[in-house]
Write a structure and sequence with these properties.
The structure is a single chain. The chain is of the alpha/beta class. It folds into 2 domains: 275 residues, HAD superfamily/HAD-like (Rossmann fold), CATH 3.40.50.1000; 201 residues, no CATH class. Helices cover 46% and strands 13% of the residues. It is built from 24 helices and 14 strands. The strands form 3 sheets. A 7-stranded mixed beta sheet has the order 8-14-13-9-12-10-11, with helices on both faces. Helix 13 crosses helix 14 and helix 19 runs antiparallel to helix 20. The longest helix is centred in the middle third of the chain and has 28 residues. It is elongated. The C terminus is likely disordered.
Length: 563
């Protein structure tokens, strides 16, 4: 992320942007309430209850322990000890899997975009970034990987032979334990804590806040806010995640409903002119204007002229949010068709309206039927002069990181003989991240890149074209990968193409299979998060040994995978 892009959150980041550079300065972040809204432990508990993986007795005892901790009758050590005993005999691998599922369902959408930008600002200064949290690695690891944070210092359960023993490792990463963890990190990496930052929302972290030279209360609770004001510490509060305001719910409901309202408004045009196409064009543009206005989604568009100079074309965009639909409607406005998953067709009214607008619904699980279903779109381009809008990632991503590209849009461009126009959406997740119902006001940056000539493309050179266009997105997003990554991507695509269709695939552990797609397809250095955490807070004896074979997981989804 460039300094220009980071500057959107100028009020939060100016101190960092003006700070000196160098890895000797640490940027330490608490996790719950600081990087994410709310508490990951709460999400974990409710997910377990929802899956009925806790007995009634365990639920009652857990609630009792939490109540005692909340009223001050029990310390954090007692809370962790109470939680640890329920885990005795459970495999650690199953908890890593559970953490991945928890991230996908609950935690990814809770990451503050402002915190993400703050972390990127520190990275642009070359600072050493670490999460220092009382939570466990199972709650933190997927988010740390998403944010490219290598160092995770956290509380640990004792593990022997790949299973939890029911005990905890002391010292826990809480209170003075966080100071110990930070000083260990400082000793290993020659950090200057007197010049370093620590961001936290809780008075429980007062020891580390007082230890660093730049304490930064972030979303502070009342007690920390009071202390911060007495000490003249800078305060920040984010409101882009967590419990929304009533107006946010009203915005979301009305913006979604405006699709139907816009369609109704277009009926007189259809009736009087007999042109369904003109009616749909009017409805599409009107929906984009109304929905973005209602949600407070302000677009900052670069290269807007590229939306019109090469039509008909194949518009490709990176898919982060349900807000992408209204953003694209506002930008493209007319003569467009698209692709959506078949489940959307079953949505009352909206599914039918999208079908009338020229949307083709495909079954992602059946590549053959998907290719066949998209055939009419080629005719729509060649005969009707329509442009097609498609997300080559295939689905919404959990974070701004770009996923791997599928080839459908590229085959379509070759068959239709039209250019490809990349639409790079930087931060639609600020409006509504994946799995989030609410849409909130935000300024969304969009780059419309110049059209890509596809006249010399062929199926034989398809992998190079996919890598080339994806590289354009990566560069625009500021996610340019390490040297050699493009070549690695092309080579992997070629290897995949050469595989025989009858080859039997071997199963992979879920922790590997669920890595972000970008990590699977490019030669990037993966953050050694488990190792970093274990090195700081756990003795070598207690570091988890991964079993040679996958142990039976506790979660239902993971159990299904192992059978």
């Amino acid at each position: 992320m460039t300094k220009k892009k980071i500057a959107e959150y100028q009020s939060h980041l100016q101190d960092v942007l003006d700070a000196p550079e160098g890895p000797h300065i640490a940027a330490l972040f608490d996790f719950d309430g600081t990087i994410i809204a709310g508490y990951s432990a709460t999400a974990m508990l409710w997910e377990k209850i929802k899956r009925r993986e806790m007995t009634a007795e365990e639920v009652v005892e857990t609630i009792n322990v939490i109540a005692q901790y909340s009223t001050g009758n029990m310390g954090f050590s007692g809370l962790m000890t109470g939680a640890a005993k329920f885990m005795k005999g459970v495999t650690e691998e199953s908890y890593f899997e559970f953490g991945e599922e928890l991230y996908e369902k609950h935690i990814a959408r809770k990451v503050y975009p402002e915190a993400r930008a703050l972390i990127e600002a520190h990275r642009s200064k070359g600072h050493t970034i670490a999460i220092v949290s009382s939570a466990t690695i199972y709650q933190i690891e997927p988010t740390a990987r998403d944010l490219d944070i290598e160092h995770v210092l956290c509380s640990q359960y004792e593990v022997e032979n790949g299973e939890f023993t029911g005990n905890i490792i002391r010292p826990l990463c809480f209170g003075e334990g966080k100071v110990i963890a930070a000083e260990n990190l400082s000793a290993d990496y020659d950090l200057d804590l007197d010049q370093s930052y620590f961001y936290s929302d809780s008075y429980d972290d007062i020891e580390l806040l007082e230890r660093v030279g730049k304490p930064r209360p972030l979303n502070p609770n009342s007690k920390l806010r009071e202390v911060a004001r007495k000490n003249d510490w800078p305060l920040e509060k984010y409101e882009s995640r967590g419990q929304g305001k009533p107006v946010d719910y009203i915005r979301t409901i009305y913006a979604t409903g405006s699709l139907i309202g816009s369609a109704i408004a277009s009926l007189p045009i259809w009736a009087l002119t007999g042109s369904q196409r003109e009616a749909m064009n009017f409805s599409t543009g009107l929906f984009g204007d109304i929905a973005t206005a209602l949600t407070g989604c302000e677009l900052e568009v670069t290269g807007e002229e590229n939306l019109w100079t090469s039509r008909p074309c194949i518009f490709v965009f990176n898919h982060q949010s349900k807000a992408d639909v209204m953003i694209l409607a506002k930008l493209i406005r007319r003569d467009m068709g698209g692709v959506a998953k078949k489940e959307v067709r079953d949505t009352p009214v909206i599914g039918k309206l999208m079908e009338l607008a020229g949307t083709v619904f495909i079954d992602r699980a059946n590549a053959g039927s998907a290719i066949k279903a998209m055939a009419p779109l080629i005719d729509a381009v060649k005969i009707d002069g329509k442009s097609i809008v498609i997300a080559p990632e295939g689905t919404r991503t959990l974070s701004p990181k770009l996923g791997p590209f599928k080839k459908g849009a590229f085959h379509m461009a070759i068959q239709a003989g039209v250019p490809m126009v990349p639409i790079v959406i930087h931060n639609a997740g600020d409006v509504a991240p994946k799995n989030e119902f609410l849409m909130r006001p935000a300024k969304v940056r969009v780059d419309v890149l110049p059209a890509v000539d596809t006249s010399k493309w062929s199926v034989r050179t398809m992998n190079e074209h996919v890598a080339e266009v994806r590289g354009m997105f990566l560069e625009a997003l500021g996610q340019v990968e390490e040297e050699g990554a493009l070549e690695a991507l092309v080579n992997e695509e070629r290897a995949t193409t050469k595989k025989t269709t009858g080859a039997k695939r071997t199963s992979k552990p879920a922790a590997v299979a669920k890595k972000p797609a970008a990590e699977k397809t490019v030669a990037r250095k993966k953050p050694v998060i488990r190792k970093a955490a274990a090195k700081k807070m756990v003795s070598k004896k207690s570091v988890a040994k991964q079993p040679a074979k996958r142990s039976t997981p506790t979660t239902k989804a993971a159990a299904a995978k192992s059978t």
